[in-house]
Amino acid sequence: MNGRLGDIALKAFGILLMLAALAFAVTKAPDRSLESLVPRWAPPPSDFIELDGQLVHYRDQGPSSDPLPLVLIHGTSASLHTWEGWVAGLSATRRVISFDLPGFGLTGPNAGGDYTDARYVAFVRSLLVRLGVGRAIVAGNSLGGEIAWQLALADPARVAGLVLVDAAGHKFEPESLPLGFRIARIPVLREPMRWVLPRRAIEDSVRDVYGDPARVTAALVDRYYELALREGNRVALMQRMDQLAPGPVERLPEIKVPTLILWGGKDRLIPLRWGEAFHQAIPGSRLVVFTKLGHVPQEEDPAATLAALRDWLPEVAR
After folding, report:
1. Domains in the chain and their CATH numbers?
2. With contact defined as beta carbons under 8 Å apart, do 123 and 225 qualify?
């Protein structure tokens, strides 16, 4: 009897091993080279610029004569593509600059593995100098919003107006954390993510940050998935998660430029209470809430969020 049970157990173990091997084969996702991703994700007007030893993916669109460009900064695990709806609506009359931050999109990891807020602010300052931008209206979503308001504190002469879209920087207390972020924050679980990344995990993560998951298309998931596989990006995400820290929110009242705060009412990653906290802290700021949208409202509904931006822009001119 014991021998028979042993045979059954051995066969069961063998089946489990085969199933595990099959699951690995199905979900195995090796890194993809920059060159393999460029044709689909960096057609014109995309360009690349060498900055501090790193090749940066960016787009500089609209009239170069615009004295006050708009600079758009994406969030964690996103890319410049998140702003395409805004750029399409603005670039006929305004110069609009968007780019992939180090560690994300086609820009990929930096050599030192430094993804602190201070390093990101220094990167944006260097890029704007390289592109000949003196003053600008700086907009950012999530991590990009955190970089934007810290840039306004670090270099106030460069920021003429500030747009915070579900911005980070306060204590990170999500009501719901996307699956990809959860894995990247747990050392034991995240190591296999270097080689295995089910597309479904990315789809679930994107759906989690949308107010209406029905808006998430296959093409949108393709973008997030393929850019996550860019060589070095998965390790960069892990490093960024290890370096998360609240920003100097006690200094927010020092921001004196016109500030627009856009927030998704269904944002569960950085809930609305933090948008209200930014509004309370920044003198003269304007808060607009989109009750049906989530954490990336500029991507989920470009038309509605852009309308709010257009309504506010005259305040910068004044």
Report:
1. 34-317 (3.40.50.1820)
2. no
